[in-house]
């Protein structure tokens, strides 16, 4: 295919060529006409001169004065600047202004002479061997001039021919000069015309080039420039109209694109901020789109996930089957799947529905997933809780019932056994009441923190810790454990003193319970001097038996015991102490942390809001 030429190179050469052809044709025609005109003028002039001289020549001929004729010819020739030749009808030269007629050839068959002999004016332009240059000849017939024929009645007889001629060398030269001038004029004209054509074609092409550039920008989605201001100055009406239309088109396109972009961004924002995980899949099981929640669940990058086969993203056979089912049957599927993650399980409620485009054609499936892990975990916790409560309550109740039945069966009569059994019954009833007290205080704290009606007040922390330690002093002494306090007296905490004291007591009781004789328990308070949030850390540290790492995450759950045998042996803990601590921490808008190394000891930290006062 031919490479497209620039507009200027299409307009310019064609126009210049046309003008060149016109100029050459006009020049050639003009020069030819001029030459013809010039020749004609010359011929008329020569004929007039011949006619003028002919009167005198006729005289000489009539009188037969050939010598006089020759003189006259020379004179007339000189005066008129014309060569004058008189030729007899038979072709013999009688006189000539420039040559000796004796040496001249017979002129009968010279073109002009031959013509004149027939009675008309003869004309010829040719090279004269006599004078050795190009001459223009005009010959007129001279009639009835012979003396011997003077009496002949009016019958026209051509007796001689009078020929005048001039050199056409000067005419040729003039013609040459004229031609040169015409040529020069035409050349100048051509150059000027070329320049004008160039200017015009540039004027036509430049706005088009500018429009092409701007159209290129439009095609790249850059609508910042407009065509009209660029082309207005020199462009034609058509170009200006076109530029205006293109500008309007660009404006509309820009508006449409902006509207689509805004719409897309809004949709994208909605899509990506949805709590539900959403994946759109095409009929070839490739991911069309995936939102942030889904990308997070399946641990993939949103951008890289697009276009990939869904099986590479969703590594769950159940969900893959659901997608496959909906793709083939076009029927929605509602189900629940469990994703196995590194340390935990994720419960997802899945909705797989066919995806259709605007025209109602099926283009794939849409998977919407709700993370119901928390719900399921809560259900599990509740189930466990009920089971645990029943279990915890059943043990003392079974014991009480057993011993009461034994007493009723007769053991009541044996005083020693009766006292022993009643002591056991008392122990279990105390335990029952402790469990119920703990459960009640737990639900009370929970309820109050849910309603948010617990009022916290700023109080100095040290007295609260001292009171808690005082409560545990007897237990510590009995266990042979020393308890020390490291707390500056100027720390103020936003607290409910009763609850905070209970939490510290719970932690201290555990620390003492799970320590050996001679171990140390410390209550240390740290303020976050550098902590902008103004947190106070109450750390209860012991050098006791410690807790295995696998128990730590669940330690604060109700009824959770890391070591049931030891817990019971250590005085029958309810498994609710740490759950109460956590709830109290939450009621203080704080939290709890635990660190522990088996055999070395544990460190429980209660985090509350407060600061060091000066
Ligand atoms: P319990 O009434 O059984 O002590 P808690 O909720 O207070 O219940 O504690 C839960 C479990 O955490 C305990 O059964 C015990 O196994 C473990 N535990 C708590 N504190 C300590 C500690 N300081 N050292 C070792 N184990 C501890």
Features of the shown structure:
binds adenosine-5'-diphosphate; rod-shaped; Beta-Lactamase; 4 domains; alpha+beta; single chain; Helix Hairpins; 21% strand
> Poorly predicted ranges (pLDDT <50, ≥5 residues)?
none
| Total of DSSP H or I helical runs spanning 4+ residues | 16
Please state the structural category: alpha+beta
Mean pLDDT: 86
Helix percent reads 40-55%
Q: Might you state the CATH topology name of the largest domain? A: Heat Shock Protein 90
Rg, Cα atoms, Å: 66 Å
Topology:
Layout: H1 7-63, H2 66-80, E1 83-88, E2 93-96, H3 111-117, E3 122-128, E4 133-143, E5 158-167, H4 169-219, H5 228-231, H6 237-273, E6 277-282, E7 287-290, H7 292-297, H8 302-305, H9 310-313, H10 317-329, E8 333-340, E9 345-356, E10 362-371, H11 373-408, H12 415-451, E11 457-460, H13 462-479, E12 482-486, E13 491-495, H14 497-513, E14 520-527, E15 535-542, H15 564-569, H16 577-587, E16 591-597, E17 601-612
Parallel strand pairs: 12-14
Antiparallel strand pairs: 1-2, 1-5, 3-4, 4-5, 6-7, 6-10, 8-9, 9-10, 11-13, 13-17, 14-15, 15-17, 16-17
Helix pairs in contact: 1-2, 1-4, 4-6, 11-12, 12-16, 13-14, 14-16
Bound molecules: adenosine-5'-diphosphate.
């Amino acid at each position: 295919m031919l490479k497209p030429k620039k507009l200027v190179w299409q307009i310019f050469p064609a126009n210049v060529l046309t003008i060149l052809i016109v100029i050459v044709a006009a020049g050639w025609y003009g020069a030819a006409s001029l030459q013809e005109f010039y020749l004609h003028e010359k011929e008329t002039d020569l004929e007039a001169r011949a006619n003028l001289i002919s009167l005198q020549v006729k005289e000489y001929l009539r009188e037969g004065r050939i010598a006089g004729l020759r003189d006259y010819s020379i004179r007339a020739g000189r005066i008129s600047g014309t060569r004058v030749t008189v030729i007899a009808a038979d072709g013999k030269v009688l006189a000539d202004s420039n040559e000796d007629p004796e040496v001249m050839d017979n002129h009968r068959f010279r073109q002009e002479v031959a013509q004149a002999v027939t009675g008309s004016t003869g004309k010829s332009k040719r090279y004269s061997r006599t004078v050795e240059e190009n001459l223009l000849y005009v010959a007129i017939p001279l009639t009835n001039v012979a003396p011997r024929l003077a009496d002949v009645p009016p019958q026209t007889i051509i007796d001689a021919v009078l020929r005048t001629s001039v050199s056409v060398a000067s005419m040729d030269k003039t013609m040459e000069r004229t031609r040169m001038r015409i040529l020069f004029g035409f050349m100048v004209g051509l150059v000027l015309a070329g320049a004008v054509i160039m200017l015009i074609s540039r004027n036509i092409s430049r706005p088009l080039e500018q429009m092409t550039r701007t159209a290129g920008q439009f095609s790249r989605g850059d609508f910042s420039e407009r065509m009209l201001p660029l082309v207005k100055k020199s462009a034609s009406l058509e170009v200006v109209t076109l530029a205006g239309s293109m500008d309007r088109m660009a404006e509309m396109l820009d508006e449409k694109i902006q509207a689509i972009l805004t719409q897309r961004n809004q949709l994208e924002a909605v899509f990506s901020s949805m709590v539900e995980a959403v994946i759109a899949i095409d009929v070839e099981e490739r991911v069309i789109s995936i939102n942030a929640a889904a990308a997070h669940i399946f641990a993939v990058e949103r951008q890289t996930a697009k276009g990939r086969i869904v099986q590479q993203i969703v590594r769950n056979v159940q969900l893959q089957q659901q997608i496959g089912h909906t793709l083939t049957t076009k029927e929605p599927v509602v189900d629940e799947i469990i994703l196995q993650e590194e340390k935990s399980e994720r419960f997802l409620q899945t909705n797989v529905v066919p995806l259709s485009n605007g025209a109602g054609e099926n283009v794939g499936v849409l998977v919407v997933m709700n993370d119901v892990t928390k719900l399921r975990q809560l259900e599990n916790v509740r189930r466990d809780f009920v089971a645990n409560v029943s279990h915890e309550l059943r043990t003392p109740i079974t014991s009480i019932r057993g011993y009461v039945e034994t007493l009723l069966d007769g053991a009541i009569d044996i005083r020693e056994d009766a006292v022993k059994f009643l002591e056991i019954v008392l122990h279990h009833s105390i335990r029952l009441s402790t469990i119920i007290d703990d459960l009640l205080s737990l639900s009370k704290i929970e309820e109050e923190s849910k309603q948010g009606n617990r009022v916290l007040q700023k109080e100095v922390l040290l007295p609260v810790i001292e009171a808690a330690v005082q409560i545990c002093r007897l237990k510590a002494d009995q266990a042979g454990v020393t308890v020390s306090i490291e707390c500056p007296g100027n720390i103020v905490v936003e607290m409910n003193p009763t609850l905070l004291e209970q939490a510290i007591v719970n932690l201290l009781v555990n620390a003492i319970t799970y320590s050996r004789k001679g171990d140390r328990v410390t209550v240390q308070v740290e303020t976050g001097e550098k902590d902008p949030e103004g947190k106070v850390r109450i750390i209860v540290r012991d050098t006791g038996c410690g807790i295995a790492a696998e128990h730590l995450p669940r330690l604060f759950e109700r009824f959770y015991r890391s070591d049931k045998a030891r817990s019971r042996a250590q005085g029958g803990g309810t498994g609710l102490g740490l759950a109460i601590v956590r709830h109290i921490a939450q009621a203080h808008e704080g939290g709890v942390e635990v660190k522990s190394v088996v055999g070395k000891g544990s460190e429980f930290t209660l985090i509350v809001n407060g600061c060091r006062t000066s």
